[in-house]
Amino acid sequence: MKNNIGLFLTKRAHLSPDLDGFIDVDTNRRFTYQQWNERSNQTTALLKDLGLKKGDRVALLLMNSIEFAETFFAIAKLGAVCVPLNWRLTPEELSFIVRDAGAQTMIFGSEFRESVVDLEARGAINSAGDEGTSITNWLEVTSAEGRPDFALDYNSLHQAADTAEPEVTACDDDMLYIMYTSGTTGLPKGAVHTHTTATWGVLSINATSDQYYADRYLLSLPLFHVGALTPCTGAVHRGVTLVVMRQFDPVKTWQLIKDEKITTALKVPAMLNFMLQTYDPDQCDISSLRWIMSGAAPVPVSLIERYAELDIEIQQVYGLTETCGPACLISSEDAIRCAGSTGKAFFHTDVEVVGDDGKPVAPGAFGEVAIRGKHIMREYWNRPEATAEAIRDGWFYSGDGATIDAEGFVYIQDRIKDMYIAGGENVYPAEIENILAGHEHISEAAVIGISSAKWGEVGAAIVVRTDDSLDEDAVLAFCSGKLARFKQPVRVHFVDVIPRNPSGKILKRVLREQFPEPAAE
Asked: H-helix or E-strand containing 329?
């Protein structure tokens, strides 16, 4: 068997044909692994009929659905490269990613028709401003009328396609997907993962967590995130039933845990908070639930303790797009004993906290988190300098500051790259600062994360204005439409000068001290 992620689905369908594979709860569609694999083969066939070949990039602008899942594995079987798109982004942001990746094909849901029409009208200009590779194939997944003239009907093409297993040519170090993550320069970078890195991401998780055959995993994070895509692949590898929500809803989550006998799940801390607010012991049957993994932001000990009172184990996870997910994992038991820690390195993973010299620091000393394993990304797409800076001697330097104790528990202390996390989404201030710099009455701008009871963190803009009539509402309105909603700042402070160090870098630490107030909810 070749090491091809698409063949994971083929093999699982062979071993467990009648096992529930994918349950699309929002459309009430259920598929066994055999049915899921046949649908994936049909997608491979239709893409091949359109002329796609090994190495071609296919952009997906889809909600969580069987269409996303079947297409991801189909692209892998074809040897093409998947480019999952964050549907929370604006057309302007999506346009850069599509051009940068050189995507030739886009498969999109009808709910994103307006954005896609905007994208198609923008034409094909690459990041250097030159003529780039255009999207020649647009496929809409739809059950409604009104498909754009330039788009093909995915559903009819899929239904007519062959279910036979395709010939698989890609494997090992061939590219599997490019997942874009915001960069500190203000432009997103594409983390390139291969069939090998994705395989080891799955092996690392399945060797560390107690996920079992025929478990029922509730997936509500978007599949364009590594925090959902890797668990999806891992579920196929282990033989787990995926119960999939298009979008998170706390009340529906409790109902699905009861009705679908959910055993395991992954939620960001904000989701866990919303779930507690709607928990009704008289209505919620959680007897099947064994654990919930939580990542994307630190999980407060008080939240872990509240779930422990319900006899639900919260396992805190630390990972990154660049590591295909795995870095550290902690059980609920250790999370209480080692309050504030994100845990120890996953199986098949090395994690060290290193100083400026790249050597491990002493227990308790501050340094940068470095991660090593076969699941580390191959590179940043078309960013050789950024790749060389991030991957050194086989170690990925995360940009996260931390300490590590004598037992190997890692404690994240600060974000070296000034990133903050809003509702589970990584936000890099430089991208917002670049937008603010385009305002005619703003001479300088800096953005910091401030605490939010609802979203964990949100953005606050510190602005030097050249016109005293410029107010907070005008600044926020200027950002609207240029950034995804989760990136938009919610507060603006006006100052005479922004503090900088001798080299000219903004002193974010000083700004956080000057403006510590949490967001108004």
From this structure: strand 328-330
Instruction: Report CA 484 to chain centroid distance, whole Å.
Output: 15
Q: Is the same domain home to 284 and 390?
A: yes
pLDDT at 132: 45
Residues 438 and 411 in one domain: no
For residue 443, give the CATH number of its domain. 3.30.300.30
What is the pLDDT, as a whole number, of residue 352? Answer: 97
pLDDT of residue 182: 63
The candidate with the shortest Cα–Cα distance to 95, out of 134, 131, 122, is 122
Which domain covers residue 279, as residue numbers?
197-415
Indicate if 258 and 397 belong to the same structural domain. Answer: yes
Alpha helices per DSSP H over 239-316: 250-259, 269-278, 301-309
463 and 428 fall within a common domain: yes
The DSSP bridge partners found for residue 449 are 459
Please give the model's pTM, rounded to 2 decimal places: 0.85
- Closest CA relative to residue 61, chosen from 105, 22, 18, 23: 105
CATH number reported for the structural domain that contains residue 38 in this entry = 3.40.50.12780
Give 491's strand partners. Answer: 460
**122, 155, 171: which is the final residue of a domain?**
171
Residue 12 lies in a domain: yes
C-alpha span between 117 and 63 (Å, rounded): 18
Residue 347 token pair: 């199986």
Return the beta strands (E) in 35-158 as ranges.
57-61, 81-84, 105-109, 137-141, 151-153
Residues 411 and 434 in one domain: no
496 phi and psi angles, rounded to 5 deg: -85, -30
Dmax over CA atoms of the chain, in Å, equals 69
What are the tokens at 175? 């590219």
Classified as helix, coil or strand, 128 is coil
Stretches in the chain below the pLDDT threshold 70: 124-133, 143, 182-186, 414-415, 417, 501-505
Q: List, for residues 261-292, the tens digit of each pLDDT value.
A: 999 999 988 889 889 989 999 999 999 999 99
Q: Based on C-alpha coordinates, what's the Rg of the chain?
A: 23
Number of domain units in the chain:
3
Q: What is the DSSP string of 471-517?
A: -HHHHHHHHBTTB-GGGS-SEEEE-S---B-TTS-B-HHHHHHH--P
Residue 331 Cα distances to 69, 336, 348, 364, 382, angstroms: 29, 9, 18, 21, 38
Asked if residue 428 is part of any domain, the answer here is yes
Q: Which long-range contacts (CB under 8 A, 24 or more apart) does 49-52 make?
A: 49/157, 49/161, 50/105, 50/137, 52/78, 52/80, 52/104, 52/105, 52/137
Which tokens is 387 given? 């790749």
